[in-house]
Amino acid sequence: MNRIVVLDSCVLIDNLRANKFRDQMLALSGRIRHLSVVLAELSRGARTETDFHWMRALEKKNKLLTPTERNWIESGELLAKMRTDHGFEPHKLRDLHFDVLIALTARSCGACLITSNRADFELIRGYRDFELEVW
Question: Across the chain, how many H-helices and E-strands are there?
Answer without folding.
Answer: 7, 5
